[in-house]
Amino acid sequence: MSLICILLVDDFAPWRRFVSSVVQKEPELQIISEASDGLEALQKAKELKPDLILMDIGLPKLNGIDVARRVREVASPLKVLFLSQEFSLEWSKTRLA
Questions:
Q1: What does CATH list as the number for 4-96?
Q2: Do 23 and 83 meet the contact criterion of CB atoms below 8 Å apart?
């Protein structure tokens, strides 16, 4: 079994913790680092060369799409999977009513 090293990128810490807890249940997946903005994600991706980046699109400093474009130029064959959550009070009211 080959280990898949993951960089987890999202600016919302509770969401990162949730995703991390789900990923940790899979023995072939390992989160090697986390980042909270696009520039940090780009730096860590270049430095750590993960197999996969789980990343939000709406990131501060540099959005996820720009991070993906830049990182693929320097860290190929890297895979990027965009992962996002959206929660608003209005959404929860309509779903919970």
A1: 3.40.50.2300
A2: no
Residue pointed to by tokens 């903005």: 37
Interacting residues of 46 by C-beta distance below 8 A, sequence separation 6+: 71, 74, 75
Contact 7, 44 (CB under 8 A): yes
Q: 61-77, pLDDT tens digit by residue?
A: 999 999 999 988 876 67
For residues 62 and 67, what is the distance between their CA atoms, to the nearest angstrom? 7
Residue 85: what residue type? Q
CA distance 14 to 22: 13
pTM of the predicted model, to two decimals? 0.82
CA gap 58, 46 in Å, rounded = 20
Element (H, E) at 92: helix 89-96
Q: Is the dihedral of CA 83, 71, 64, 20 positive or negative?
A: positive
Give the C-alpha distances (Å, rounded to integers) separating 36 from 32, 50, 52, 92.
14, 16, 16, 25
* Cis before 77 (ω within 30): yes
